[in-house]
């Protein structure tokens, strides 16, 4: 019964979003999600130390449930693939706020690298579209990157799949993020 209600919820959710349209470059990254994840995870398993591999495994464990993510979270970035193979960072503060029936505002509140954006359904998946930035506020909104993908700024567009795996655990997974890795996981716990 829970599966059927989740499917109905997802179908309803896809038609109610006021979130920004996903920019073309991010649609391409989403289309290559499995490629990014596979390449990065294999690299991380081959080159990461045991403690970091355990952190990656914990972040990717469990199946997604219907999302109910509003609230304060601890969040930890895990970078897989690329230059270092696997890097696990300290925990920071994040917040998710309900802004519509099936739409949430996501904020990474602490740390030198921040994020701000919207989680809303796209083709049956909860997708985060937002920006990463340093400092107190983003220089540009996510939508600005649709008109000029070559903008030079301290702000970068971000796209991720959001999955909540339990009442106190969730993840944002970023295929080919702008940076030095092939796949990033922002592991959320509370």
Give a quick rundown of the structure.
This protein has 5 helices and 8 strands; from the N terminus they run ααααβββββαβββ. It is of the alpha+beta class and 190 residues long.
Describe this structure in words.
With 190 residues, this protein is α+β, with helices and mostly antiparallel strands. It has one domain (2-189). It is 26% helix and 40% strand. The chain has helices at 2-13, 24-31, 33-47, 50-60, 144-147; strands at 71-80, 86-100, 103-108, 113-122, 125-134, 156-166, 169-175, 183-189. An eight-stranded antiparallel beta barrel has the order 1-2-3-4-5-6-7-8. A hairpin with a 7-residue loop joins strand 7 (169-175) and strand 8. The longest helix is centred in the N-terminal third of the chain and has 15 residues, at 33-47.
């Amino acid at each position: 019964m829970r599966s059927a209600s989740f499917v109905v919820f997802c179908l309803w959710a896809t038609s109610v979003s006021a979130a920004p349209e996903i920019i073309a470059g991010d649609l391409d990254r989403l289309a290559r999600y499995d490629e990014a994840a596979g390449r990065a995870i294999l690299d991380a398993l081959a080159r990461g130390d045991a403690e970091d591999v355990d952190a990656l495994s914990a972040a990717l464990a469990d199946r997604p449930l219907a999302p109910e993510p509003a609230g304060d979270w601890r969040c930890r970035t895990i970078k897989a693939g690329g230059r270092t193979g696997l890097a696990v960072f300290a925990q920071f503060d994040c917040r998710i706020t309900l802004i519509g029936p099936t739409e949430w505002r996501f904020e990474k509140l602490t740390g030198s690298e921040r994020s701000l954006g919207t989680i809303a359904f796209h083709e049956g998946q909860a997708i985060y579209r937002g920006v990463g930035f340093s400092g107190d506020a983003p220089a540009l909104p996510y939508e600005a990157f649709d008109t000029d993908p070559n903008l030079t700024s301290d702000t970068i567009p971000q796209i991720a799949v959001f999955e909540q795996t339990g009442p106190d655990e969730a993840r944002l997974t970023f295929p080919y993020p702008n940076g030095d890795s092939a796949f990033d996981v922002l592991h959320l716990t509370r």
